[in-house]
Amino acid sequence: MTLFCLFISFDTQAQINPIILVLGDSLSAEYGITMGTGWVKLLEDQLQKQGSKWNVFNASISGETTAGGLKRLPKLIEQKKPGIILLELGANDALRGLSIQESEKNLRKMIHLCTNSGSKVLLFSMQIPPNYGPEYAKQFKDLYSTLANQEKVELVPFFMNGVALDLSLFQADRIHPNEKAQAILFKNVWGAMAPYQTLLKVQ
């Protein structure tokens, strides 16, 4: 009888604590900074501060590409049954010079997996320096807004806004944001989550 009650408790807990799944790369995986100081942790803290029942599961991996994210996403959806999925992927595709078309295809498939499962989506728009080629950089930038408009999902207009041009907010590699940058990244995400605020406040 005790064991049965325990199962019921776990099931009830899962129902009253919906999940926000973060699927990203090193920018969301706390690469090179102290654990517990990244923007994802700041998101968790904000939800707790406002008394939200939502929990955050960070499935981000340093070096992740859209292909890797697409491969992992179905199992994550099955296991976590997230209500909201934050997709922060694509930067590593660009750094490796992968085709825009392949990145777009992978991101679109991920969006479809999310929406078909009933999850809300927040897509993170990324940009790359013009030294990768101005045409490639423009196509990469436009990729995200185009997908968001076509698939009717919410968009973080530019995840690195307020950080990208300030070297004091980067680690020594000049690629990864440092701890000081995390609050700015969080604000960019939190602002883009405005359409979900009512949902996040559901008790």
Give a brief description:
This protein has 203 residues and is of the alpha/beta class. 47% of the residues lie in helices and 11% in strands.
Number of strands: 5
Architecture per CATH nomenclature, i.e. the level-2 architecture: 3-Layer(aba) Sandwich
Q: Percent helix among the residues?
A: 40-55%
Shape: globular
Please write the string of helix (H) and strand (E) elements: HEHEHEHHEHEHH
Specify Rg, calculated over alpha carbons.
17 Å
Strand content: 5-15%
Largest sheet: 5 strands, parallel
CATH topology: Rossmann fold
Give the termini separation: 29 Å
Number of helical segments?
8
Question: Which consecutive residue ranges, at least 5 long each, have pLDDT under 50?
Answer: 1-14
Oligomer type: single chain
Report on this model:
The protein is an alpha/beta fold and 203 residues long. It has one domain (18-200): Rossmann fold (3-Layer(aba) Sandwich), CATH 3.40.50.1110. It is 47% helix and 11% strand. A 5-stranded parallel beta sheet has the order 2-1-3-4-5, sandwiched between helices. β4 (120-124), α6 and β5 form a beta-alpha-beta unit. α2 crosses α7, α3 (66-80) runs parallel beside α5 and α5 packs parallel to α6. The model is unreliable at 1-14 (pLDDT under 50).
